[in-house]
Amino acid sequence: MPCLDDGDNSRRGLPSVLELRQVPLWSLGPLRSVRKVKVISFLLGLTLTFLIMASYILTWDKKGLMQTLSPFHLRTIANPSSTLPHNLSSTKDYANIKLLVKCITSKLEFSPRKLPLLKDVVNTDSHLFSVIPRQFLPNIKSPCWYEELSGKTKVDPYSKNLYAVRSKSFRTVCDYLRKHFQEHLYHSDDNKQYRLRCLPYFYIIGQPKCGTTDLFHRLLLHPEVKFTTMKEPHWWTRKRFGIIHLKDGLLERFPVEDYLDLFELAAYHIQEGILGNNSGDHSQRHIITGEASASTMWDNQAWSYLYNYRADGEPPFLAQDFIHAVQPNAKIIVMLRDPVERLYSDYLYFNMANKSVEDFDLRVSESLQLFEACLAEKSVRSCVYNTSLSNAMTVRLNLGLYSVFLLDWLTVFHRDQILVLQLEDYAANLRLTIRKVFDFLNVGPLSEQTEAALTKRPMSNTRRAADRSLGPMLPSTRDLLREFHQPFNHKLATILDNKVFHWTET
Questions:
Q1: pTM of the model
Q2: Do residues 121 and 236 make contact, with C-beta atoms less than 8 angstroms apart?
Q3: Whole-angstrom distance, CA of residue 7 vs CA of residue 119
Q4: Residues ≥6 apart with Cβ < 8 Å to 322
Q5: Backbone Cα Rg of the chain
């Protein structure tokens, strides 16, 4: 049932997306006057325009994701100023959008996720599971194994690595790895050669604009922690599927071998610990590997390009299904932030031009109405993962619905494998929070000198001076977003048994 009935005159100020869904053309009755004929002609034309725009959005959606673009790359298609009133701060329009938010929050249901069978997960990517063994080496902390070399690998193991093709810095790393490759091989008694391969011991999985970059750089200072040689490989969510080109379709699918190459430097250190260095020190066995891609928690949009969604509109698989299948003991770190502030920071960081608090207000209002229209037909989870909706929204509203994503991670990983941090606590109590991370990762304490350097390091990715000059968002925008996020935050606080995740004091 729609939240606004046909007799509610207050909805006349709502944008056309809601008007079209809630005023069926056949309900207008006989039209006897010229004025009524004009009205229904206008509505018919508006309906046709909406359908044409929707078809363009869906067409672009099928072709254009996976090209590492700004999240606002569809602005020319879904321009808030073309579909919304220009004076959204007026009392009348604000009341209508408030009513729309209440409509959204009245429809929220958190049903358990339907897990795919393990055999279906494996069959989806048989190559991945043929490369990674079911068991890892004992007596070292990181998930590592020995891979027998083939003839081609012996010649140049990094010649076709797509990360090296696209990253000049990793290309330089590959030159170093290539030069020292032979000296790090393991030679067996039967004259076979093996290289050590490793996966991440832990993942920093999200969310964007929540401090993951800063945590990454601070953890780099710990001698037992070795990350990938680039911060965000985005392999589990994007690169393993490939990059979609507008004309040529899906190209350049990054194989798992390319991803494993990102841990090669870490594997060199661990290999030294296994064999023992000149002093007989085996401490490097305790080295742990990690990676930090802020898309891992939420980005599962590739499935809409490769497979049909299920009847309930939800993706058939999620990234965590595959991570858990290959390494069920992985440790997961989640960085979260007041979702209202996260959205504004996301807007300021990724939107390069024409930024203003009024523009942000328009984008928020449009995204709220699109989300409500989706909820009229689908479940919360389906709308959160919906690729077409995500591409149509001009602010990434869905990324702040943390409880939906976290619940789905908890369907495959145990609660004690997931550490959830709050950016506000991280900024206020950096030393205490970092120690909590070290305890979670089971790494040794730092020397006083190293810990001092770690805590004194300036914060990463702080807001640009030009963005700070815009000031905070409009109070009316903040109120709308607070009301929208409140039930999601309440669910999150319940899951974590921690009231601070209500963000009522932010």
A1: 0.80
A2: no
A3: 53
A4: 121, 125, 128, 236
A5: 26
